[in-house]
Amino acid sequence: MYNNKLVLILGLVACCLLVGCKSSKLPVEKEKPADCLSARVELVVPTKDALFTVNGTLKMIGGERVQLSFLMPILRSEVARVEVTPNELLLVDRMGHRYVRTNRDELKGMLPKDATFDKLEKLIKEAAQPNGRRTLTGSELGIPSLNKGKITLSDFSTAPFTLTPTQLSDRYTQVSLQEILQLLLSL
Question: Which helix (H) or strand (E) holds 150?
Answer without folding.
Answer: strand 150-157
